[in-house]
Protein: Nitroreductase family protein
Organism: Kribbella speibonae
Amino acid sequence: MALNLSADEVLSTTRAVRKRLDFDRPVPRRLIEECVDLATQAPTGRNRQRWHFLVVTDDAQRRAVADIFRRALAQAPGQPLSADDVRRMNHHARSTERVFDSLRYLADNIHRVPAFVIPAVEGRTDRASTTEQAGTWGSILPAVWSFMLAARERGLGTVWTTAQGPLERELAGVLRVPYDKVMLAAFIPLAFTIGTDFRPAKRVPREHVLHWDRW
């Protein structure tokens, strides 16, 4: 059921939902298909439309995929943080602590999520030039974000994760994806949310990120 939110409300309240996913309520296929229809209206480089969306709802397949997610998450290397990263992450008290607490909760309950959406894009960027990487990721990211916005409007919660990375080839095998030709771009849990009263997040002030004419 649509929430009848304004465009500004959808854009400012589409949160990374981990603790408020409803594990007990199935997500109708119709709603997922509607979100995919909207996602494929996103801009795409040279109109190549190389996007794909793999949706996993079958019980046995969900268990297999959830197991890969949990093992991959444990293997994910931590990206080095700069001093500015740390400053921004902790601009608001306890924000980083809450993020990691919710991530642990999701990992503990990933097998209970009713649907997984795994966006993929034709063409791999392994060892590709920056230009090629920008073109490939620039063609899948807008579509996935459109999917997530459409899900929010329908009372569904999502969270973009890249936990599949360390075990992408194994996940591709389970999903029968031709790994050498198709890249699994993300791993997105999908469920109805517990409540719909999401608010804009606390962020660093605009003046910290807005540059006019020069850096």
